[in-house]
Design a protein that fits this description.
Strand content: 5-15%
Helix content: 40-55%
Strand order of the largest sheet: 5-6-9
Low-confidence stretches: none
CATH topology of one domain: Rossmann fold
Largest sheet: 3 strands, antiparallel
CATH superfamily of one domain: HUPs
Bound molecules: glutamic acid
CATH architecture of one domain: 3-Layer(aba) Sandwich
Radius of gyration: 33 Å
CATH class of one domain: Alpha Beta
Number of strands: 13
Mean pLDDT: 94
Shape: elongated
Length: about 550
């Protein structure tokens, strides 16, 4: 197509493709370094699939001293949300993801292969489209939506493959005069590829995860530049991954069907094809069926869910590591105290059958992690969570730091620490009884001893005769036993088991009464420690509250 007409179709371009080829030279990296990218669309919804992909991408890049950069794919302007870019950056940063290059916020970026926001690269795409127009490998298409619908219904009627290709691609036959006429009339247009591919040919692609793929060659005259001057995903992907020197395109397998389009575009543009690695997205077991996690049905698909529930990001990352690589778990069990960066990942160990997302397993990983951090760290993290999601609890934690840290410390620094919490959102419910502001004398979980007179008697005798705040744990327990003997409960479990009918109950039943009176719960961490932290005054107050509760009835 003649230059003047091309310039009329894509006006105002200041550079040619050589300029960009020189501006973005080959990266100077070591042999085998993987350059890959995180390429989200800023729709405001960051999902588990993004993290899944990122955990593979980051690992592979780090392991090969490569690069992982972020590119914002905002060419579909209708799907954008306000501050979409910052939202993504913040969401992934909470999981420890930072990038070697890419946007830092809505207006700044770092790296020498930018801009990293596609809407700012309009000129670049148009320059490459211009080159294709000049070489007669592209053409303007003025077809209206109604005309496209007509083509489609004709194809359906005659049982032809649907699409804008071959003889159906009417605009590819327009002469330059006809094009000029339409331009003079002000008709809107898009730029399409003049595709000489043959659908009956097979192309072979070696996918790093899926192995050898045989696919039909693309023969559709794909849209390169849309009516708003921005490129389609296909065209932008090919230009960007070429100019940014991506070696590996890691993306979910919903893109497999578009792969022939991309392979074809790389070939036509004379660019080296990157290595593709298509992974299967996470599935969910829903009754008897297995299906993809869905935005509508599964809140756990959104990354914000984990923040809101307070599932620590380390837990989610560790869980994702176990599901991205089939041999990770075995390695981890053998190297539990090592940095997981020491694990070597390989693409061919990434599952292709669709991993089932297992919340139970994630929560058990989380419990394990939270049981191993220090009480102070547990306090800090809970507070950080509460400041965002539960202001009342945050205020209470701030006011009672010492008490909270001591509470988190109960049975923590042992070989087998307690595993109470999987999420920060569970903490308040788990330890509310330690705080005066939260304690309520209701829903007492009385067990075997549930006669209020008997309960009151035990509490009275205990506080007036046996409880001494200066006792150590052994002394305390011995006194509990003495009290049992006095009140007709078995202090010796062996004796109790031999002749249970001789006793009103045993020492465990009695300590449960004290536990429930203090906490309302029948199961708590170590009772002696709880009492030490609460202190004599509070213990007395709690016992009085049991009494009030009875009166209320
Ligand atoms: N913008 C695409 C998406 O969000 C990226 C796919 C890719 O990584 O190429 O799905």
């Amino acid at each position: 197509m003649n230059k003047e007409l091309v310039e009329r179709l894509l006006p105002g371009l200041t550079h040619d493709i050589n300029y960009y080829e020189e501006l973005y030279p080959k990266r100077n990296l070591g042999e085998g370094a993987i350059v890959t990218r995180f390429a989200p669309s800023p729709t405001g919804f960051v999902h588990l699939g993004n993290l899944f992909m990122l955990s593979i991408a980051r690992k592979m890049a780090r392991q090969t001293n490569g690069i992982v950069y972020m590119r914002i794919e905002d060419t579909d302007q209708e799907r954008l949300v306000e501050n979409g870019i910052s939202k993504i950056i913040e969401a992934v940063r909470e999981f420890g993801f930072t990038f070697d290059e890419g946007p830092i916020n809505e207006s700044e970026e770092g790296g020498s292969y930018g801009p990293y926001i596609q809407s700012k690269r309009k000129e670049i795409y148009q320059t490459y489209a211009k080159e294709l127009l000049l070489k007669d490998l592209a053409y303007p298409d003025f077809t209206t939506k109604e005309e496209l619908d007509m083509i489609r219904s004709e194809q359906e009627k005659s049982k032809r493959r649907i699409g804008y290709y071959g003889k159906w691609a009417r605009s590819r036959f327009l002469s330059e005069e006809e094009i000029i006429k339409k331009l003079d009339e002000g008709k809107p247009y898009i730029i399409r590829l003049r595709n000489n591919g043959d659908f009956n040919n097979k192309i072979v692609v070696m996918d790093a995860i899926r192995g050898k793929l045989e696919l039909p060659e693309d023969d559709i005259d794909q849209v390169l530049i849309k009516n708003d001057g921005l490129p389609t995903y296909h065209f932008a992907h090919v230009i960007d991954d070429h100019l940014m020197h991506t070696t590996h395109v890691i993306r979910d397998d919903s893109w497999l069907s578009s792969l022939p389009i991309h392979v074809n575009l790389f070939k036509i543009l004379g660019f080296e094809l990157p290595i593709y690695a298509h992974f299967s997205p996470l599935n969910k077991k829903d009754g008897e069926t297995i299906r993809k996690l869905s935005k509508r049905k599964d809140p756990e698909l959104a990354v914000s869910y984990y923040h809101e529930m307070g599932i620590p990001s380390e837990a989610l990352m560790l869980y994702l590591a176990t599901v991205t690589n089939s041999n990770f778990e075995e390695w981890y069990l053998a190297h539990e105290n090592e940095d997981i960066d020491n694990f070597t990942m390989s693409f061919n160990k990434v599952g292709i059958s669709g991993t089932i997302f297992d919340m139970e397993k994630l929560l058990s990983i989380s419990k394990n992690i939270l049981s191993k951090i220090s009480a102070l760290e547990m306090y800090d993290k809970t507070l950080e969570w509460a400041r965002k999601y539960d202001e009342e609890f945050a205020r209470i934690l701030e006011k009672n730091q010492d008490l909270a840290v001591k509470t988190f410390n109960i049975e923590r620094n042992s070989v087998k620490p307690r595993k109470d919490f999987a999420m920060f959102s569970e903490v308040k419910q788990g330890i509310y009884y330690m705080f005066e502001e939260l304690f309520k004398n209701e829903n007492y979980e009385w067990q075997k001893i549930n006669n209020i007179e008997e309960i009151k008697n035990i509490l009275d005798v205990y506080i007036n005769k046996y409880y001494d705040p200066n006792d150590n744990e052994e002394e305390w327990f011995n006194k509990m036993k003495e009290m049992c003997d006095e009140l007709g409960y078995a202090s010796n479990m062996k004796e109790y088991k031999q002749n249970p009918e001789k006793f009103k109950g045993n020492v465990a039943d009695v300590s449960t009464v004290i536990r429930v009176a203090l906490t309302t719960k029948s199961r708590t961490p170590n009772l002696y420690d709880i009492m030490k932290i609460l202190g004599l005054e509070t213990i007395k107050k709690r016992f009085e509250l049991v009494n009030e509760y009875r009166i209320g009835f």
